[in-house]
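EI: anyone free to look at a 413-residue chain?
SC: sure, send it
EI:
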Amino acid sequence: MKKVLLVDASVLFDEFLKTKLGDDTLKVESAGSKKDAFQKMITGLPDLIIVDIAKDLSDIQDFLDRKLLEPNAVKIPMILSGPQLPHNQVVSLMKYGVVKYFAKPIKFDIFFDAISKILRTVLTFDTTPSLLQCHVNGNIIFVDLAQGLNRDKITIFKYKLAEILDKNNMHEPKIILMMSDMDLSFMDGANLELLFDTILEEKRIRRNNVKVLTMNQFTKDLIAGHPIYHGIQAVSSLSEVTDTLVSNDEQADIRDVVSEKILSADDEADNGTIGTQFGQDNNGQSSPDDSGTAMRVAVVDDDPVIRELLKGTFSHANVEADLYEGGKAFIEGLQHKTYDAIILDVFIPDMNGLEILQSLQAQPEFKTPILIYSQTNSRETVIQTLSLGAKGYLTKPQKPQVIVAKTMEILNS
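SC: here you go
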C-alpha cells in the first residue's frame, strides 16, 4: 500500500484528505510539526509528501533543507499548497523534490489528478459538472448551486461549511440554498440527500434555519417526504425567506433585502483553506493558473479613462483585458473570443447593459460571470441586472483595484 504524509495541514484539510485518499486505499499519516514530519519521513519513507504552507516559504524552509541533505528522502516527491507565489519562487522549489505547487484555494480535481500521476494509481473522482459557491453575510450563509450535484464537491462542502462557521464564530447560522436553476429528478435523489445530510450533520445548524430556494418539484417532494428533513423549508422565491434575512421588527421589501444583504455580502467565495471549486468550474475550461494560459476579461464601458485604468490594473494581476466602448462591438467580439469574466456598464451606446444581459440570458450555453459597474445605484436597476444573470454590482466610482478584486472573488480566483 502506498503511503502519503501530510505536513502541517489544518484539521479540516487533514480530515478531508484522509477521507478522500483513504477511500482510495492509500495509507495517510499526519504530522503536526516540522520536527515530527522529518522523523516520520525518514522512518516511514512515504511515497508522497503533501505540505500545507500557512504564510510563506520561510515556514517550511528548514524542513526542505534537511530533506535535501537526507539521502533516503531527497527523492521523495512533494506537493505544496499555500499562498500565491512568484513564478521564480515556485521554480526554486524543484530542487527539493516539489513537483507541484497549488495556490489556495485549491482546485481539487487538478489536485487529485496530480496525486494520481505521482503515485501511479487511480483515484476515483466524480466528474459531474457542478458549481457550488459560498457567501457570508452576518449569520447567513448563502450557498449557490448550479448545473448538477457532484458527490466529491458535496464532501468538500462539508469541511468548507465547518471552516466558515469556525472562522465567523457563528452559533445560530442560517443556510440559504440557492437552487432555483437546478432541474433535478429521482436520479439525483441520493446526491440531494447527501447534500441535506451534510448540512444537518453540522450540529450548529438547526433544521428550521435551512431554506431551499427551488422551483423543482422533485426537490420539494423529497424534503416533504423525509421525516429527517422536517423543518427545512422549500420556497420558490426570495420573498418567502425574507424572515431569515431581516429581524422581525425590521420592515423591508425583498428588493432592499437583495441589494443590501446579498450584493453587499462579505463574500467567502471559497477563500480560506478549503475551497469548493474544481479546475473545470469555469465554463468547462481549466483554470488559467493551472493551464499556463493568462486569464482574459472583457471590459465594456464607453468611458475611455475607465477602460484604460481597468486594463492596466488587470495587467498587474496577470489578467488580459479586451476593451469595448459599445455593446454591439462586444456582442460581435463574443463570436470570436471566450472570456473568464465580463465587466459591464449599464449605460453604453448602441446597446445598453440590460439589453446585453437579455441577449446573453437567451443563450443557455453562456455561463461567463458578469460584474456590473455603473454610475446608477437605483434599486430597480440593481434588481433587474441580477434577475438577468449578473453575478455582482458595483456603483461608480471605485478604485480599479476594487473592481479587479471583486472580479476575482466572483471567479473564486
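EI: Residues 6 and 14 are 7 Å apart (CA to CA).
SC: 👍
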